[in-house]
Amino acid sequence: MPQADLGSQTSPTCCILCGYKDNVSIQTYKRDYYPPAAFISIVLAPLVGVLVLLLFRVRYELPLPFCTGCWKRFRWAERFEALSLLGFFASLIFGVFLLLAFESLGLLIACPVAAIGVIVWAQIHKSRSGPKIKKIDRKKVVIAGSSYGDIVFSKTTTARIETGF
Ligand SMILES: [Zn+2]
């Protein structure tokens, strides 16, 4: 397994996404892993499910080389994700407002449904703007590096991994 130690590479570092060598610096790419079983709990009981997701979350903080352009694009995708989550809560309030104003239960339900659609869109956009994850589980994450081959971060190598809170 190749050990990820990109910071001390002697050869010029290439951007993990586009492979360019100009304006490349090491950035901390954060990626959360949630065990698939945790998503079942969110369907059964949303509030308990959110707690289960947070408790079993594994947060990887991976030092990866990005060029300025790719990193900016990824940061915007992260902001869009944060906005989409805020938008969900706003949609609940807006839905209640529409219910009171128009006495329409349909509008109350349509708002959060549309907001969930935006969340899904933001998630897809974020994963497309970031490095390609080949495999991720509780113990390791494998990133497809453009010119490096696969980069493996695990609990025993350089990646900092936080579990739960
Ligand atoms: Zn790039």
Can you describe this structure in just a few lines?
By secondary structure, this protein is of the alpha+beta class.
Descriptors:
3-stranded antiparallel beta sheet, 165 residues, binds zinc ion, disordered N terminus
Q: Layout of helices and strands, plus pairs?
A:
Layout: E1 24-33, H1 36-44, H2 46-55, E2 58-67, H3 68-102, H4 105-129, E3 132-136, E4 140-145, E5 149-154, E6 160-163
Antiparallel strand pairs: 1-2, 2-6, 3-4, 4-5
The chain binds zinc ion.
Account of the 3D structure:
With 165 residues, the chain is an alpha+beta fold. The chain has one domain. It is 48% helix and 25% strand. The protein is built from four helices and six strands. The chain starts with 23 loop residues before the first strand and ends with a strand. The N terminus and C terminus are likely disordered. Bound molecules: zinc ion. Zinc ion (ZN) binds next to helix 3.
